[in-house]
Amino acid sequence: MTDPLIPEERDLPSGRHALRKAHLMAEMTRPVTSPPQEPGSARPSRRRSRLAGRPAIAAAAAAVAAVAATVVTGQNASTAQAAVTCSKDHDYVVARIMDPLAGHERLRNDFRACGFDIDLKLVPVSPSVVGSIVMMEGGQKIDTVDDPSCRTASGAQCPIGLRIEAGFTGKATVVLGRAARSGEPYASTNTSTAKGEALEGVSVEGRTVAEAETMIAQRHVTIARYNVQWSLPDGRGYGDLTSRPKIDPAWRVTSVEPYAPGQVVLMIDPAGPVPSDIRQKIEGAGAPPSAVPGATATSGS
Amino acid sequence: MDNLPTDAELWRRAVDGDTEAFGVIFDRHARAVYNHCFRRTADWSEAEDITSVVFLEAWRRHGELSPERDSALPWLLGVANNVLRNRYRAKRSHRDALDRMPALSAEPDPADDIAGRIDDEHQMRRVLVAVNRLPLADQEILSLCVWAGLSYDDAAIALGLSVGTVRSRLSRARVRLRELTASFRGEARELPAGTAHRPGERHTALRPPVEES
């Protein structure tokens, strides 16, 4: 900027670049029903808010917007209402996901409408994982389309669609993270203290349970579960979901994992002897896998 | 950089039906268009909507353009100027398309520096108090050459003028602005809310999910 009186340039707000781009591309490929109104021409006063009737998607504004907005264009049934729409890019077809909350069947049908047998599943994930591909198999000819303005908390790209070789006839499964609904447990998570997560920047490792509870409450986050990680001297262990009254507030927290929007699981390193019921559960599970192939716990005889 | 297609190449591909190519042009220039629109409106939210309209309008007119240079930015800023001149009518023209915009997030992202954006708007409104007293042609040439940093050649493309005319108009605009700010000194105030926007069109950079009237 050459004029010091003028504010510094800024990017579009988080996720909006991808959203606006997806919208633009949807409009580009939208079947023309009527040309844009020329300035000044009369038209009916239908005015619907762009926000009306759309579910608010909580959490991870940037990544959600990137995914939610991302897809529209259609090789066959190309409408703004499509959950998946496709456009051509030379020898590839770019499939974009318009509605990450669409049902499994609808997503699959929309892929079929684009000519592909792709089983796309969207699973609820914690905010910083939204938009990431959680799992993909069977699709070497499938690549992701990433939002250039987005990085996940771990620095990974944020996929906003798939780039598929034209003529791909194989079967593929792609599991993509989407924002969770209120109260919906996550299927995949980052650590709770990662960027974009409920406890971003909060340092809880090594704190006592009591201290961690206070810090978490200050963020208006609730503790859904206490996972107490007991272990025996031989390394065998057991994570027990324990009710709060049985937790010693002085035990130490090892990590906090996202559970659902606004809820976390406290992972706890307990002190004192292993309770007998826990010991039975550990011993009932059998010997731990040996570190050396072929070796056994009683080797030497 | 190795073998990145120029805007001219992308534009040709887009005209041939390669929508992804137009998406790359958006990736390259949306930020510049967005900031240009902000500097003319002092409103980040309005600038965001106008940026969409600029690209929608650019696409609608894509057949008319054959980028003379490698960068499509001068032409896009020219489209932006046209839209800004008639922004209410332009937005009305693309109303249906804007209505199909997916929902914007209800939750502002702390990374978006909402407070900083509000400060920007106050600052820019103070600047526009003076600049908006200039003739529109002077405003446009200042915003392109001084604020957006376009060269004379690129500004000439954006404005559809000769380079010589750009030079002389810019010089004249600078003098006028200097005179204005001198006469203005001591009384410069921020525009009262509503002056820079139509009633009901003022909103924060990140909108809550409410109905617009």
TrEMBL record, chain A:
Region (Disordered): 25-53, 280-301
Domain of life: Bacteria
Biased composition (Low complexity): 284-301
Name of the protein: Uncharacterized protein
TrEMBL record, chain B:
Bilayer-spanning residue ranges: none
Keyword Transcription regulation: yes
Keywords in alphabetical order: Sigma factor, Transcription, Transcription regulation
InterPro entries named in the record: RNA_pol_sigma-70-like, RNA_pol_sigma-70_dom, RNA_pol_sigma70_r2, RNA_pol_sigma70_r4_t2, RNA_pol_sigma_r2, RNA_pol_sigma_r3/r4-like, WH-like_DNA-bd_sf
Pfam families: Sigma70_r2, Sigma70_r4_2
Lineage summary: Bacteria, Bacillati, Actinomycetota, Actinomycetes, Streptosporangiales
Chain ranges of the RNA polymerase sigma factor 70 region 4 type domain: 125-177
GO molecular function ontology, one term from the record: sigma factor activity
Record's protein name: Sigma-70 family RNA polymerase sigma factor
Domain of life: Bacteria
Entry similarity comment: Belongs to the sigma-70 factor family. ECF subfamily.
Keyword set includes Calcium: no
Location of region: Disordered: 188-213
Organism of derivation: Nonomuraea rhodomycinica
PANTHER family from the UniProt entry: RNA POLYMERASE ECF-TYPE SIGMA FACTO, RNA POLYMERASE SIGMA FACTOR RFAY-RELATED
Gene3D superfamilies to which the protein is assigned, alphabetical: 1.10.1740.10, Winged helix-like DNA-binding domain superfamily/Winged helix DNA-binding domain (1.10.10.10)
GO BP terms in the entry: DNA-templated transcription initiation
RNA polymerase sigma-70 region domain sequence ranges: 26-92
